[in-house]
TrEMBL record:
Name the record gives this protein: Germin-like protein
Domain named Cupin type-1: residues: 81-219
Record keywords: Apoplast, Disulfide bond, Manganese, Metal-binding, Secreted, Signal
Sequence similarity: Belongs to the germin family.
Molecular function terms, GO-annotated: manganese ion binding
Lineage of source species: Eukaryota, Viridiplantae, Streptophyta, Embryophyta, Tracheophyta
Disulfide bonds: 36-53
Binding locations of Mn(2+): 115, 117, 122, 165
Residues spanning the signal sequence: 1-26
Amino acid sequence: MKNMISYLFLSEVLVFLALFSSLAVASDPGPVQDFCVALANANDGVFVNGLFCKDPNLATANDFFLSGLNIPGYTDNQLGSNVTQANVAQIPGLNTLGISMARIDFAPYGLNAPHTHPRATEILVVMEGTLYVGFVTSNIGNVNKLFTKVLNKGDVFVFPVGLIHFQFNVGRTNAVAFAALSSQNPGTITIGKAVFGSTPPINDDVLAKAFRIDNRLVDIIQSRFQMPGY
């Protein structure tokens, strides 16, 4: 009887370990070194996560440093907003660490237009002003559900990875927010610009049918996305 109990217990332990191992393999691997400072070229570098790594012995504190996020971004443009990025392109030491951030400035009624980050979840904190924010789910059951919230100073909101989201300054004063993203290089696809401002442009017939508008309106919208500063 004892042998039978021991056998059953051992079997359960082995099943648990097998399941745990399969879950562990499915997750993203962690870094196997302290850091991997990105290099601009391949000379004497090791290729890791899309970039080449500097010899760790040659790394300096400046590889992990960026100044200037205290400076307001230029918002005198068509959208009335500006995103100042702090990702691996600005901070080489972020390579392989899976995190980045950004400062977002808004003029009164400025908009950070609907966009996605294909490689990152975003968490946003409002530092000044009032923002109307939201995201749209994928088409579960043929429905794209919209989640929105009005945020004031000190409020925090999360945008799940890959989903279309936006921020709009609903106040009469400037607004500032900081965002943290779960990727060293989250990427940004601005929906309107990607669809109507691609190079070369998407065929008029495709866009007219997709958006249920005529070709003339497609041409008008495309011409606006080709304007400077958009």
